[in-house]
Amino acid sequence: MAEAIALIDYGAGNLHSVHNALRAAGAGHVHVTADPDIVRGARRIVLPGVGSFKACAHGLKAIPGLVAALEERVIGAGVPFLGICVGMQLLATRGREHGVTKGLGWIAGEVRPIERSDPVIKVPHMGWNDVRPMPRANGARLIEPGEAYFLHSFHFAVADGHDVAAMTDHGGGLVAAVARDNMLGVQFHPEKSQAYGLGLLARFLEWKP
């Protein structure tokens, strides 16, 4: 029987595209859900995110029992987890977009504005850019070198370099992916990254941390 995957719907994700990409990568049962009971039965969890850190954090926490169910499965049971874009940023201790907002605190660090030291550098960071794996990082085997599609104005400043799985360059280094234990987060959008993104999702679907 195919594993049940919970694609979290909290009103802040590109759900249709992510759902289609997961299916194209080989996923069987993908439940688009905000139901804590379904999350508790999931064998893999995907948390997308589009918009501001503050809005996404508040939206996620506003659903009764959802954060507790996520922590039970991801932190307690160790099921494979993938955060996408702001879904990755929510792993942080806090975000500094529209004030200071607490994140999930699963990976220490904070989400800060991309600093533009050169007027040639555009913010938001939008379009195709390189993804450079960090060979000694946690979960680095999931990330391959290549190019992916980014769209963000804030970046995850990670406290422990061992949690940085990949970097990209946009007027300086920016974290492209984080990983710890059974958790993977990517700043780029695999659902918009064509073959590169589908390859990442396929590896996630086979991942046994």
Automatic annotation (TrEMBL):
Annotated CDD domains: GATase1_IGP_Synthase (cd01748)
Domain Glutamine amidotransferase: residue ranges: 7-194
UniProt keyword annotation of Cell inner membrane present: no
Compartments where located: Cytoplasm
Functional pathway: Amino-acid biosynthesis; L-histidine biosynthesis; L-histidine from 5-phospho-alpha-D-ribose 1-diphosphate: step 5/9
Residues at the active site: 85, 189, 191
Signal peptide: none
Subunit record text: Heterodimer of HisH and HisF.
PANTHER family, alphabetized: IMIDAZOLE GLYCEROL PHOSPHATE SYNTHASE SUBUNIT HISH (PTHR42701:SF1)
Name by which UniProt lists this protein: Imidazole glycerol phosphate synthase subunit HisH
Species whose genome carries this gene: Tsuneonella litorea
Source species taxonomy: Bacteria, Pseudomonadati, Pseudomonadota, Alphaproteobacteria, Sphingomonadales
Gene: hisH
